[in-house]
Amino acid sequence: MLTKLFLLFLIGYCFGQQQFGQQPVPPFLYGASQATINSFHQLAQTFQGLPEADIEKRIGNWINGQSAGIRAKYAMMRAEEKERSRWREAEQAEMAAKLSPAAQAAERRFSAIAHDPRLTPQEKYQQTMQFENSLSKNVVDEIDQMFQNQMQQHQQQREEHHRSVIAKLSPAAKAADARVSAIDRDPTIPPQQKIQQIQKIVNSLPQHVRNELDAAMRG
């Protein structure tokens, strides 16, 4: 199954690129050459109408033909997201157990849609929205509150981890992280522009600073 992070990228690509001409860059290609990014964009244009399982197969075939660095970043992204998914699903199940019976049933339906590999990213988005629109406001609000609480907990955990990691970096790596963080937290910058600006910063860094930041994030 595709990671939720990458599934969101695919939905953004299929909808955003068609409607606004935007071409987002997946996380494992941050810092890659423009030729490699263009190659992936050409591949992504073939995703339209394909179920998730077929998209994953095409991505895997493309990844196998890339450099060792890109293959490693992709494998790391998949492994990290799978690990996060395991504890996130366990945490979500614990939180869902506190919902009303109607909200529990709705949450199971949302989960079934999200985990169905036969659906295309667009179909998952459409079915999720259609099902949400069929629910009462009380049920939607109850589920939304559960996810908001979960997201707040995760954000606090990420910030604590980030602070502990950054404290160990060299001055050059700390300065680079500060620049990236400032862009990431700026609410006035559209998401696609954030990606472009962050990628520009990463590409301008000396290789040893990139390596230091990569190692810190993996740790």
From TrEMBL:
Record-linked InterPro entries: ANIS5_cation-bd, SXP/RAL-2_related
Top-rank taxon, per record: Eukaryota
Domain SXP/RAL-2 family protein Ani s 5-like cation-binding: start-end pairs: 106-210
Keyword terms of this UniProt record: Signal
Signal peptide extent: 1-16
PANTHER family, per database record: DUF148 DOMAIN-CONTAINING PROTEIN-RELATED, PRION-LIKE- Q/N-RICH -DOMAIN-BEARING PROTEIN PROTEIN
Name of the protein in question: SXP/RAL-2 family protein Ani s 5-like cation-binding domain-containing protein
Source species of the chain: Acrobeloides nanus
